Description:
The protein is of the alpha+beta class. Helix content is about 40%, strand content about 25%. It starts with a helix and ends with a helix.
Amino acid sequence: MNEKYDKLDAMLFIAxxxxxxxxxxxxxxxxxxxxxxxxxxxxxxxxxxxxxxSKTVARVFKKVARSAAIALLIILSMAFITVMSVSALRTAxxxxxxxxxxxxxxxxxxxxxxxxxxxxxxxARPTSIEEVKHITDLPxxxxxxxxxxxxxxxxxxxxxxxxxxFSLVQETFGENEVLFDNVDVDALTVYVNNTEARKFKTExxxxxxxxxxxxxxxxxxxxxxxxxxxxxxxxxx
Length: 237
């Protein structure tokens, strides 16, 4: 081995070791810097950190709240679909809605031209439907189906070959009920068993007939021109 190169290697080893030890010593004994920051800098730093933490918490809260709201909507939707898919539950829900509006919501239509029923000239009317009426003079092949049944309203739909051809609605009088109001409706005065009635067209073009026997209000909606709506009304018993 060349002695010249051995000495060179030894010198390099000693130099590198010394430099390494000096660098390690710097980490073991760090010197404080002469750079200083103002109180305003530290206050702003704390403000930025607090703002970042607040935004992070708010972001997490919004995400959790959004997920909870979506889950709640899904649960409510599934519950509603389940209730409405069961015939008995669906009828109970519809009856509850109708009862609520009958008890707490009252919408009256009328003006000086309307004809109110004089409550002081008639005996006390039933507050609930005690006797259900039907259209008795039914054409051949027509079947009936109860669509709504509660204390204040009873609705029967009549079908032929699966098509709803006419319907009968029987309802009680409300407080200060206005029986006829043709201010915004082009109604024709007709008579059902010598009782004054109003015949008019619905928004869908069907014939509609409204009258009262003194106890209840009746409405027939006829979707076919094949049937005489007045004749149907006269057979209601």
